[in-house]
Amino acid sequence: MSSASEVRALPAAGAGPRPRAPDAHIVVRDMMIAYGSFVLIGDLNFTIRRGDIFVIMGGSGCGKSSLMRQMIGLQRPARGDVTYDGVSFWDADLDTRERLMRSFGVLYQQGALWSSMTLAENVALPLGEYTDLSPADIRELVSLKLALVGLAGFEDYYPSEISGGMRKRAGLARAMAMDPEVLFFDEPSAGLDPISSRRLDDLILELRDSLGATIVMVTHELPSIFAIANNSVFLDPETKSQLATGDPRELLARPPDPKVEEFLTRGGGEPPGGPKTARPARQRSGG
Ligand SMILES: Nc1ncnc2c1ncn2[C@@H]1O[C@H](COP(=O)(O)OP(=O)(O)OP(=O)(O)O)[C@@H](O)[C@H]1O
Ligand SMILES: [Mg+2]
Questions:
Q1: Chain-wide mean pLDDT for the chain?
Q2: How are beta strands 182-186 and 104-107 bridged, if at all?
């Protein structure tokens, strides 16, 4: 495969940034997901541009969360690598890896706010740990982040005192605490009603635009996928490969594989108004 030989021909990490497309932000190259000798997916290759809303798609158990963990540094890939602005993550030294990890904001599939802490304390946690900000500055920043997700005034509530949708939004506020360059969300709208889910989509778009962040998310929600994503990868456990990468609406218009079409037309549904007129995935100006 040409990309494999290209990778081998590229300079090693530390020999300067690797060549890349001008607006490429995150590049996953020849990545394999395996547990022991069990290979889940063998050959992941895709590029995420700065400001993209990128969706990881595929059936339950196909390896979406595993892929996310390999991208954020929680799980070493069985093979391959991911680069951020040309900097190789898994080849990098520990300092570089930690610096990169601090530029990520993550909302995990299991939500995981600390139940014994108020919303403000939850959001403040990474700020206290990784910045020299004074407690007063942290409080102000925390209120700002909570306001951004529509939770102004809920600083002193505990997670058990608010609704599921509000907890998701508090999770977003915590993921954004450090003004991340990349936000990773694992099924942010799972368990939400359609209206809350739609609001969360709008919020994600706003966050992308206001933070100028790149967003990588796992979701099964077709309305979300067609409303806000402009790039994607589709994982298939049967062939242990990625079946497609690109704009989901283009994948629907010209399905590269019947499984991709089946996934994108579940319930016989096209996106509202058809693929061409779906709520457009807004592009950032200049991006
Ligand atoms: N730590 C682990 N050790 C061994 N196997 C694992 C581990 N984590 C995940 N797996 C296996 O890898 C497969 C993919 O898991 P993963 O959580 O990445 O899937 P997923 O696509 O996120 O699924 P879902 O849509 O249900 O969240 C599953 O079969 C799971 O059993
Ligand atoms: Mg998962």
A1: 85
A2: parallel
32 DSSP β-pair partners: 79
65 lines ligand 1 (CB under 6 A): yes
CATH of the domain at 231: 3.40.50.300
166: in domain:
no
- Ligand positioned closest to the Cα atom of 236: 1
Q: Provide the domain count of the chain.
A: 1
Quick one: which atom of ligand 1 is closest to the CA of 66?
Answer: 18
Q: Is the CB of 197 under 6 A from ligand 1?
A: no
Whether 266 maps to a domain, the answer reads: no
Is-contact 165 117, C-beta < 8 A? no
Domain assignment of residue 72, given as a range:
18-103+182-191+214-261
Cβ(223) to ligand 1 under 6 A?
A: no
Compare 169 and 234 and report the one with higher pLDDT. 234
Residue 6: inside a domain, yes or no?
A: no
Spell out a b/e string for 148-158, using b for 16 or more CB atoms within 10 Å of the CB, else e: bbebeebbebb
Residue of 31, 30, 27, 19 whose CA lies nearest to 50: 27
60 Cβ below 6 A of ligand 1 = yes
Condensed to tens digits (0 to 9), the pLDDT of residues 126-154 reads 888 888 999 999 999 999 989 888 899 99
Confidence of residue 97 (pLDDT cuts 50, 70, 90): very high
Atom 4 in ligand 1: which residue has the minimum CA distance? 35
**Domain contains 227:** yes
